[in-house]
Design a protein that fits this description.
This protein is of the alpha/beta class and 227 residues long. It folds into 2 domains: 2-155, SPOUT methyltransferase, trefoil knot domain (Alpha/beta knot, 3-Layer(aba) Sandwich), CATH 3.40.1280.10; 168-226, no CATH class. The protein contains 10 helices and 6 strands; from the N terminus they run E-H-E-H-H-E-H-E-H-E-H-E-H-H-H-H. The protein has a 6-stranded parallel β-sheet. Helix 5 links the parallel strand 4 and strand 5 (104-109). It is elongated, with a radius of gyration of 18 Å. The model is unreliable at 157-161 (pLDDT under 50).
Length: 227
Amino acid sequence: MDVRVVLVEPQEEENVGSVARVMRNFGFKELYLVNPCEIGRRARALSSHGQVILEAAKKVHSVEAAVRGCDCLVGTTGKKGGQKTPKRRAITPEQLAKKELNGKIAILFGNEAVGMPNEVLQRMDFVVRIPTSPEYPILNLAQSVCITLYEVSKKGFEKTVTEKPISREVRAQLDKFTDEILSKVYEHPHQQWSVQQSLYTIYGKAMLTKKEGGKLISFYRKIMAKL
């Protein structure tokens, strides 16, 4: 699996260093940092033989920039869906590893204190949650990365699909037409949001190819014309 690890606003440089070490352990090299804390001596010390990954990490100012060029987005969370958290059906890292994902996969991990922003989780193709004790469910950032990458690396995916996966640009078009149709079909914003989230989840589970995404967009264009 071709994985890009994305840390969203990490606040402890020790965690960033530990993540670089874990990535080296499991054979992953691409690290993106969204508005990170200062990366200094302590991060380098904890990165150990992963220092080369730490030094090559790309610092960006937005999630959009961090996932640019990726074909599938995976968000991680330690919280179950509730009133303040998107009600997304979460899968485990093991279940993620069993999915036949192709292309560039971005796995996003949230801030140590507040986790992943809801608006980011809503745009993910998959949401991953590590099963933990309900008494204390939140793991350390580096621990979460370690468990997730361990599961993902076990299988050692082979690229067997010849069709190109849907690009982020085509997926953005698909989402745009979806939202426009929903705004015309449903009057109540809550209904629009509920169906929108279900459709986004279906798109992610379907692992659409670029060709399939194009066909859906063409179909939605015809619907818009009729409406």
